[in-house]
Amino acid sequence: MQFPFKLSQNKDFDVIGFGTNAVDYLIQVPEYPAFNSKIELDDYVQMAGGEIASTMVGLRRLEMKTAYIGRFGADAAGDFGLQTLIDEGVNVEYAEQITGAQTQIAFIIIDGRSGERTVIWKRDKNLSYAPEDVPVEIIKRTKIFHATPHDALACARLAKEAKATGAIVSIDIDNIFDGLLEMIPLVDIFISSAEFPEKLLGISDRKDALREINRRFGCPIVGMTLGENGSLILCENEFIETEGFEVPNGCKDTTGAGDAFRVGFLFGLLKGETVETSAKMANAGAALKCRAVGARTALPNLNELSELLQK
Is the pLDDT of residue 311 over 90? Predict the structure, then answer.
């Protein structure tokens, strides 16, 4: 099945991302600790993360042109996080550091038995965007606008500009934020966590929930990630169910697997693939990411993605 929209051509960027960045403190333990207990950790490390920042890095590794709009604190964590994007070749012309703000952080506990993680995070309110803060001038330069709606009204302003200039609007969502209902009708590619549609609508059946999102908000593509079980996507009244890939040499950490899924899906769209092939690319990218600890450590390059798909 072909995607139900066409990409603009002759743009400076393939994808511009707006939303979350973070510095992650990843703590590996033999097993997830019981309440009111003590456990010795196996290892810990500081790495860069955040849904949108990581997705822009993943697309760069697949040789796409990306830019990131977002805010860091004017602190050591912000210096670190911003430099990681520069090192990967992501355009950061419209990223900024805010004096007096702390960069978003996350403490992530990784269960050594399975690689599954628990995320404990904090975002400084001073990193938030009001609608009048956003740099609308850059959006006309992209084929795809991809965002998390933590600052939903600001995100909606950018999405409106994106659609007015022919860009496709994609969203990464797992929670409800103020102003979200103004943002969703602007979305072309709505891919959420498995739990989110029920949070939004109160509908537990996954297919019924996706149908209702499509009916109520008009998003042409609606889907959800299902972890190791793959993904479920609704397009033109047809469901596409795609199995997950086995992680080469076993799953070490699921942190950022959803970001990697979106990398593969948007990459497929940019390369002119079908929705089915793009979903396979998405699940393959997510599996490859899980090879190592950290949201970005094992994001694949073109050769790695191609090799797993061929297997």
Answer: no
